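Model: Ready when you are.
Researcher: Fold this.
Model:
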Amino acid sequence: EKKTNEQKNDYPDDPPVKQTMRLFHELLGFFAHHAVTTGHGFRGLYFGGGVLQHLIDNDLFDFKVIDEYICLDVSKTTRKALEAMPLYLINTSFAALTGLTEFIKETDHA
């Protein structure tokens, strides 16, 4: 359940929380960088899950920092590939079921 502005905590303005959230997003971007470059997954990266959804619902998700750290300290060629790679945010709790439903519709399971 998404909270209204009146129900939200004011903890995002707390300096230690800001630092922690910044570090979380930096590390997520750094992890994503290594996952993509190690696995040669330059065709796209999907972000999803309960923690990220909670951050989004509470206006704490910082995609800009993640994007910055995905391309941190890399060669020119790798930077071009990473910058061209699409990044997706899964914003549904039932992504697997949605995909399965589409798969069933597209295949001959009658």
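Researcher: Now this one.
Model:
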Amino acid sequence: LICRKNHDIEYLSTGGLILGSFPHARYENGKTILSQGDVLVLYTDGVTETTNNDENVFGFNRLEQAVRDCKDQDVDGIKAYLTDSLFQFTDSNNVRDDITVIITKCEQPFS
């Protein structure tokens, strides 16, 4: 998921199976440009599939909104905000899957 400086959300369109589970898996190469202020969030399905006590999933819409809400913070602030959002949604009791998030923020343009 990429949250652009203007808060637009984009998803990477190439890839493959989950990393590390299949030794002979093949992946497509893709390319995108990150501009100053853009945030790239890579995450496992445990993030979007986490459920609350009513069995509602956190889902893509909540993830997108959470990233939009905190994208102007530094990477540590984004991590803290996403973690808090997930645990508030689940009440910290329904985490049944791994939750892995990698956050990259483009602080200055590449030349």
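Researcher: Key takeaway?
Model: The CA atoms of residues 46 and 99 lie 5 Å apart.
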